Structure to design on (296 residues):
């Protein structure tokens, strides 16, 4: 729980605040962008929420914060409960953002896919009874797709709870001991007609993306929307192999998708043609940066 005694001085006066335990993961800024912003090395409340919609988003951010760094001087318990029950948060066509981000994955986002042939969890939120109940109501979990070694969080507990098979690449498998499905090599794998596993080595050697229904790309830490440049981004540091990273980004031009659903960074929904154009622009930027760095 956030401590008002540790309230950051960068917060505006009012009920909601961020304290000094913030790890600047961006979760609150994604969920409640009108209230939270990056100020220096942390998030802060830059505008107190007003009205039902903004208050709802602020309480969602409070609950999703992986370190419990968001607090209130006076808690509206009915609004807090309403925000609690809003997770998993439906995005589109049976795809949900789980909320309750885990500090074990530095606040990485996770997702739930409801599908008649078996539901999927993509990366892992905190293990909470609230989410267990929600997943049970939707029919449980058949597969847990782990995009890479950094975001496994509480996946083993969810796997045990639901008898689910964890999927991870061999190169990152040490992060998920006993994983039930180990992916080998760099070739895409069609699990069933709507699900395709796409190895995208670069950030880590075993990074993978999941393409669902030629509409949703679950990209882990490989690809995200950068709100500052209004374009797609990909890691510039903590990169296992830069040339392989660029090759993996280029591989995505072979596929159609309209959503990018990352572990870190903003989610984005565009037309398929717009998404292709943004991937091409990203490749051009990164190739130029890499060439400049090598020549400099």
């Amino acid at each position: 729980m956030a401590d008002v005694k540790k309230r950051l001085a960068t917060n505006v006066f009012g009920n909601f605040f961020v304290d000094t335990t913030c790890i600047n993961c961006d979760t609150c800024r994604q969920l409640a962008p009108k209230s939270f912003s990056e100020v220096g090395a942390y998030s802060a409340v830059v505008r107190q929420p007003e009205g039902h919609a903004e208050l709802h988003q602020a309480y969602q951010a409070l609950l999703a914060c992986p370190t419990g760094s968001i607090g209130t001087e006076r808690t509206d318990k009915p609004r807090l409960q309403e925000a609690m029950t809003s997770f998993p948060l439906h995005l589109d066509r049976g795809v949900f953002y789980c909320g309750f981000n885990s500090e074990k994955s530095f606040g990485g986002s996770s997702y739930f896919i409801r599908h008649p042939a078996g539901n999927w969890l993509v990366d892992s939120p905190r293990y909470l009874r609230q989410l267990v109940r929600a997943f049970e109501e939707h029919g449980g979990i058949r597969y847990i797709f782990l995009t890479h070694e950094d975001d496994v969080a509480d996946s083993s507990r969810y796997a045990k709870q639901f008898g689910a098979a964890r999927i991870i690449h061999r190169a990152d498998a040490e992060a998920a001991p006993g994983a039930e499905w180990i992916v080998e090599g760099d070739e895409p794998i069609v699990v069933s007609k709507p699900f395709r596993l796409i190895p995208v080595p670069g950030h880590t050697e075993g990074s993978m993306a999941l393409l669902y229904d030629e509409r949703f790309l679950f990209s882990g830490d490989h690809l995200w929307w950068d709100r500052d440049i209004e374009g797609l981004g990909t890691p510039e540091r903590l990169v296992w192999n830069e040339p392989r990273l660029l090759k993996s980004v280029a591989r995505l031009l072979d596929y159609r998708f309209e959503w990018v659903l990352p572990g870190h960074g903003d989610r984005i929904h565009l037309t398929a043609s717009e998404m292709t154009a943004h991937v091409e622009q990203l490749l051009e930027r990164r190739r130029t940066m890499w060439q400049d760095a090598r020549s400099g």
Remarks:
- The chain is about 25% helix and 25% strand.
- The helical segments are 27-31, 51-64, 77-85, 129-137, 155-162, 242-251, 272-295.
